[in-house]
Amino acid sequence: MTNAVTPAPAMAKAESGSALSFYGIWLLAAAALVVLPLVFSSGGSLTSFSLIGISIIFALSYNILLGQTGLLSFGHAVQYGLGGFLAVHAMNAVASHNWPIPLPVIPLMGGIGGMAFALLVGWVMTKRAGTVFAMISLGIGELVASSSLILRSVFGGESGITTDRTSLMPLFGWTFGPQIQVYYLIAFWVMISAIAMYALTRTPLGRICNAVRDNPERVEFIGYDPHVVRYLAYMFAGFFAGIAGGLTAINFEIANSAYLGATQSGLVLFSAFIGGTAYFFGPILGAILVTYLQLGLTSVTSVWQLYFGIIFIGIVMFAPGGIAGILMKHRPLIRAGTLSAVIPSYLVAAIPTLAFALGIILTIETVARFSGGDPINLLGIPFVAAAPTTWAAAAVLVVGGFLVARITWRRIAEAWDRAATVARDRGYLA
Amino acid sequence: MTAAIQVNAVEKSFGNVSIIRDLNLSVAKGERHAIIGPNGAGKSTTFNLISGYIKPTSGEIRLNGEVTSGLRPFEINRRGLSRSFQVTNVFARMTVWENVRCAVLWATGHRYAFWKNVDNLPEVKQRTAQILDDIHLTHRRDVPAGLLTYAEQRELEIGITIAGGASVIMLDEPTAGMSHAETERAVALIRRLTEGRTLVIVEHDMSVVFGLADRISVLVYGHIIASGTPEEIRGNPKVKEAYLGEEVD
Ligand SMILES: Nc1ncnc2c1ncn2[C@@H]1O[C@H](COP(=O)(O)OP(=O)(O)O)[C@@H](O)[C@H]1O
Ligand SMILES: [Mg+2]
Q1: Which residue among B16, B17, B19 has the greatest number of ligand 1 atoms within 8 angstroms of its CB, and so is best to mutate?
Q2: A377 located within any domain
Q3: What is the number of domains present in chain A?
C-alpha cells in the first residue's frame, strides 16, 4: 500500500466540486424531462417517454431492495400492481363522489397501496434474506396474481378494472386527456420519486440498509435489528413501486392482473440488473434501455424475449456490474487522463463485434421465421429465412465475427491493464 | 458493586458435544480482563455467549446486573456491550468511513431515521472522524473495507467495535496475525481507547496479556481453571501445568 496516501488529495478536490455538480445533475435531469417532448413530439415518442418514466420509478424502487439492502425479490410487481388497482379504485371513487382531488395526487394512493401491502406481509417476508426471502417473494407474487383473477369485485377478473382519468377535476385547466399532459404528470412524479429515493440512500436508514446488504450478522452487533431494517426497506420499495403502478393505471386508464404477475416482476429485476444495482443511477439506465428495447423489439421480431434472455445472460457473465458498472470502471481512467489509451481498442473491436452480433441475430431470426414469416430486414438488407445463402451469411458472420472479435477483445483487456496501471500509479484507484 | 459481566454456571453444547462446562466468570467495572487458553478451549464461544450470538444451554449471564442471556445481540449491544470478531467481520463494500459511521449511528440516537441527512449530523461526523484518527485510517477513509490490508482490517474491526461508545468492550484476538510492530501499535491503541471502560480480551501473546490485563482467566476445555491477577496466575501451579508451561518464566 505504498501509494495509499496519494488518493486523499485527489478525492478531496473532487469532493469540493461535487455539491455543484450534484445539484447540476438534478436540474439537468429536470430540464431534460421538460424539453424532451418538445424535441420528439410524435405521439409514439410521448407514449414511450411516459412508459420509460414509469419504469424508472419502478426500477429504482426495486433497487432499494436489491442494490441497497441485498434482497432479491421475484415478486416486486405485486406492490406495483396493487398500487395500480388502488389508484384505479381511487380515481373511480373520486369521480363518482365529485371529490375535489386532482389527478396528480392519485399516484400517492398507489404508493400507499403498495406500502400497505408491504406493511401487511413484509414482517414475515423479511425475517430472513437470501433464498428464503426470494422464495417467499415468488410465492406471494403467484398468490396475489392468481387471487386477482378470482376476486372479481376488487380486480375485475380477466378484463381488469377501467377508469377515466379525465373524469377528475381539472388542474389549472389541465384535464389530463392529452398524452402530453399525462407525460408531464409522470415526469413530475419521476423527479419527485427519484429525488426522494436518492435522499433515502443518504439517511441513517439508507446507510444501515447497505450495512445489512454487506453483513447482516455484524449489523446486530452495532445495535441494529436487520429484520427491522429489511422490513422498512421493503415498505419503502413497496411505496415507490405503488406510485409507479398508480402512474401506469393513469396512463392506460386500466388496471388488470397482468400488472401483478411474474412477467412484470421479471422485467423490473431485469431492468435493475442490466442497468447495474451498485449505483443509484444504474436502474435508471436499465429502465430506459429495457423499456426502449421492449417497445422497439416487439414491433420487429416475435422472439424479443429471446434477445432479452441473451442480453441478461451476457451481462450476468461478462459485466455483473451492469451498464453503470461498466461506465464507472472508466472513472479512474478519466480522472487520470488515460481513457484515450483504451478508446482506440474499443473502436477496433466494435466492427467485428457488431458482425458477430448481426450473425447471431440472423441465426435467431432464420430459425424463428423458417416455417413462414416476413423476410428478415437487417440493416436494410432483406434475407429470406429459407434461403441457403442466408444460412451461409449467418454462419460467416457468427464464426468469422467471433474469431476476429476475440482478438480485438484481448486487445481491449491489454489496453485496459496498461491504462489502469498508469491510473493507479497516478493515485487513482482502478 | 455489580459486576460488568457476570457469568453463572453456563453450559453450552453443540448437539451432544459439550463445549462450555460450568463456566463462571466475573468481570468488574473498569477492569481489563484477559481470557487465555489453548486453541479450541472455548474462548470465542464464551464471547458468542456473552454477546448474544448464541444462547447458553443452561445458566445465566448478566450485564451490569441485568440478565442478558436470551437477548438478541442488538439488544445486548444497546445495553452497552460491544464485541469484535476473531475473523474480521466488516462491511466489505462500504468505505472505511461508512463502516465506522454505521457503528456510531445507533449510539448517537439516529436509529432507523429516514428523515435526516446522514452527512449532516455534526456529532456523528465528529465521532467518526475521531475514531478514524484513533485507528490511524483517516488517509484510507474512502477505500472500500474489502480492499484494506489485513492489518488495516483488524484496526477497522477494533474501530467498529469501540465506535458506539459501549461501556463494555470485548476483543477477540485483536492482534492475531499481526507483526510485532503492528501488535505493539494495536495494544497501545487498545489501551488508550478502552481507558475508563471495561475490557475483555482474548489474546495469545503472553507479553501483551501480562502487560495489559488487571485480571486473567484461564479457560481450558470450556471451564475456567483459574482467575486472578497476573501475579496469581503466574504462580498458579494448575495453570502452569495445564497451559502456560515454560512461557511465563
Ligand atoms: N457453532 C458451533 N458448532 C459446533 N461446534 C462449535 C461451534 N462453535 C465452536 N465449536 C467448537 O467449540 C470448540 C471451541 O471453539 P472456540 O470457542 O472457537 O475456541 P477458541 O476461541 O478458544 O479457540 C471448538 O472445538 C469448536 O470446534
Ligand atoms: Mg477463538
Answers
A1: B19
A2: yes
A3: 3
pLDDT in tens, A243-262: 999 999 999 999 999 899 99
Asked if A374 and A409 sit in the same domain, the reply is: yes
Q: Which of A221, A229, A428 to mutate to test the interface with B (most CBs of B within 10 A)?
A: A221
Least confident stretch, A220-224, A411-415, B169-173:
A411-415
Rounded to the nearest 10 degrees, how much is the dihedral formed by the CA atoms of A62, A67, A73, A74? 80
- CA of B43, closest atom in ligand 1: 22
**DSSP collapsed to 3 states, chain B:** CCCCEEEEEEEEEECCEEEEEEEEEEECCCCEEEEECCCCCCHHHHHHHHCCCCCCCEEEEEECCEECCCCCHHHHHHCCEEECCCCCCCCCCCEHHHHHHHHHHCCCCCCCCCCCCHHHCHHHHHHHHHHHHHCCCHHHCCCEHHHCCHHHHHHHHHHHHHHCCCCEEEEECCCCCCCHHHHHHHHHHHHHHCCCCEEEEECCCHHHHHHHCCEEEEEECCEEEEEECHHHHHHCHHHHHHHHCCCCC
Which CATH number covers residue A186? 1.10.3470
Pick from A236, A225, A193: nearest CA to A73: A236
Orientation of helix A18-39 relative to helix A7-16, angle to 10° = 50
* Shared domain check, A166 and A24: no
Residue whose entry in the numeric block shows the C-alpha cell 456490474 = A321
Is there a domain that residue A326 lies in? no
pLDDT at A377: 78
Q: In CATH, what is the architecture of B5-244?
A: 3-Layer(aba) Sandwich (3.40)
A74 assigned to some structural domain: yes
Q: Has this prediction a pTM greater than 0.90? A: yes
Contact B114 A8 (CB under 8 A): no
Q: Which domain holds residue A17?
A: 1-28
Distances (CA, A) of A410 to A341, A414, B236: 14, 6, 67
Residue A13 confidence (pLDDT):
42
pLDDT at position A42: 82
CB contact under 8 A, A223 and B107: yes
